[in-house]
Backbone:
């Protein structure tokens, strides 16, 4: 449940070796924690004024976890006293700040410093890191190794609606919420019905004059009756009094709730239905459908629109304990399912010619997820530009390294997203562990660079694609952030979590060029 710690003695040749970490969210903090254990010299660059990544940036009303926090927390910093099972943003941010304080890594973190480019310097066998500080200054420094921990779902995507610039009201993206944004008494548009909208809508609808919810595809809701609840006193007692009880909760959440769900999104070729992909998937669909039918028993008009037309698991399923249907049924809430055609001075217009007058538009429209490492410019060996090399189809070996970009390790890289079968935190811990294993090998053998070979990179990605081809998210025609522009599932890890753990548990020198 937690990797053993690293020790300085494992890196005897590390004098003068410097490591840069880009980002101080969950993954960056993990990297910093492990690098400190290993006794390596490191600097974490953070673009924001505070650590925490998305848990610092996302302050929209209702922001909280939708993965249980015992699984969505760090193996080396388990917390027994979570107040809820799906914590709210302030509690998670406090947790991260506490981990940083206890680990003594705050002084290694340069806040207000955004890394803009990485350029591999062959002569120095190091990356030239160029960062811009909030006051406009430029910081340039060379590092032997770089670990990117920039997250994935953090660069807001605001659709290019025709007429957006003519809208006179306020526009705010869910992930760029500002403290001065008030919804009280306003006519509000909530565009999108993903995880962010699902938390915002139920939190604000009772405060607004009118809420227009713009839905393109209805999401599947995973019935979670305790979603907003505090931990029950009995569980609190067990956590406080039974040694390692929290670890058991964590283990249970990983094993039953996570590993146990993968088969539900596996395509059975003999199963010939449009809305489900296997008997197990159909059973899950029926379970979710039954809850929907019950919730909208009095509103068949809404039920039609709230029922998805694709297999559950094809895009991220959302937690619900009845608050979303309750919101949709409120008198001041209107579900709009017609496509948005354009915006004007004070309204959103839909393709059916309707005009929806609003004062405030909340874009819960997701992120630029397909562009890994965006907007960082990465130039590897022989001037190779990483994004040009990817050409919109981002790939990596183990989701971590790319040939031609030596000494660069990614966390949350291509095809590492564990969407029904894991926790992003577990995944990024695996990536950090692997990076340190690679460093130990390279430095231990007296080398300066490690570069992934093309053969293993290609065969690994072929294996990933094959795994994804049999999953709900690949066969379903619905849109999702799992896929890139060409329709390839570039985000999703298609196997079990233990498989990823196993794969990243060993550094394979034969898959690399060491020099
Ligand atoms: O973004 P999304 P999100 N016109 O991309 C719609 C994580 N997360 O911020 O479904 C109209 O899922 C789009 O429509 P459609 C979590 O992993 C975690 O909600 O594509 N609508 C969709 O409904 C999550 O999966 C937590 O048809 C447009 C919505 O906008 C991920 O972040 C909390 C549109 C975007 O949904 C992203 O969630 C919140 C357009 N032009 C988020 N363009 C936790 O609790 C897009 N949409 C940890």
Residues:
């Amino acid at each position: 449940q937690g990797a053993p710690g690293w020790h300085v003695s494992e890196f005897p040749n590390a004098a003068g070796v410097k490591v840069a970490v880009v980002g101080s969210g969950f993954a960056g903090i993990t990297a910093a924690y492990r690098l400190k254990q290993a006794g390596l010299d490191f600097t974490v660059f953070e673009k924001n004024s505070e650590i925490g990544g998305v848990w610092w940036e996302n302050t929209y009303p209702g922001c909280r976890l939708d993965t249980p926090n015992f699984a969505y927390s760090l193996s080396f910093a388990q917390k027994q006293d979570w107040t809820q099972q799906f914590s709210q943003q302030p509690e998670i941010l406090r947790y991260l700040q506490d981990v940083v304080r206890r680990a003594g890594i705050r002084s290694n973190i340069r806040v207000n410093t955004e890394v803009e480019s990485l350029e591999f310097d062959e002569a120095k066998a190091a990356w030239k890191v160029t960062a811009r500080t909030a006051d406009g200054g430029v910081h340039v420094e060379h590092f032997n190794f770089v670990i990117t921990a920039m997250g994935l779902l953090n660069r807001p995507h605001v659709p290019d609606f025709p007429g957006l610039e003519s809208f006179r009201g306020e526009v705010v993206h869910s992930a760029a919420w500002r403290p001065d944004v008030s919804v009280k008494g306003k006519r509000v548009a909530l565009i999108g019905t993903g995880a962010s909208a699902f938390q915002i809508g139920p939190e604000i609808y009772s405060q607004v004059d009118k809420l227009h919810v713009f839905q393109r595809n209805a999401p599947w809701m995973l019935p979670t009756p305790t979603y907003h609840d505090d931990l029950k006193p009995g569980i609190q007692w067990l956590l406080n009094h039974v040694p390692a009880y929290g670890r058991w909760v964590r283990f249970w959440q990983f094993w039953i709730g996570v590993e146990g769900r993968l088969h539900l999104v596996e395509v059975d070729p003999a199963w010939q239905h449009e809305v489900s992909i296997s008997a197990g998937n159909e059973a899950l669909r029926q379970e979710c459908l039954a809850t929907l039918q019950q919730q909208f028993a009095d509103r068949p008009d809404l039920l039609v629109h709230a029922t998805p037309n694709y297999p559950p698991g094809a895009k991220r399923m959302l937690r619900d304990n009845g608050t979303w249907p309750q919101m949709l049924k409120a008198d001041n809430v209107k579900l709009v399912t017609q496509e948005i055609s354009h915006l004007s001075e004070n309204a959103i217009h839909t393709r059916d010619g309707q005009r929806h007058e609003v004062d405030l538009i909340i874009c819960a429209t997701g992120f630029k997820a397909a562009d890994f490492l965006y907007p960082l410019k990465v130039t590897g060996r022989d001037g190779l530009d990483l994004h040009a090399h990817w050409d919109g189809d981002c790939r990596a070996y183990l989701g971590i390294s790319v040939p031609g970009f030596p000494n660069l390790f990614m966390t949350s890289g291509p095809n590492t997203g564990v969407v029904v079968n894991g926790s992003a935190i577990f995944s990024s811990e695996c990536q950090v562990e692997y990076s340190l294993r690679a460093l130990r090998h390279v430095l231990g053998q007296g080398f300066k660079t490690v570069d992934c070979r093309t053969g293993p990179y290609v065969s690994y990605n072929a294996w990933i694609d094959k795994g994804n081809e049999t999953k709900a998210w690949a066969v379903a025609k619905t849109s999702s952030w799992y896929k890139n522009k060409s329709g390839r599932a570039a985000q999703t890890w298609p196997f079990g979590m233990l498989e990823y753990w196993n794969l990243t548990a060993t550094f394979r020198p034969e898959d690399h060029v060491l020099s």
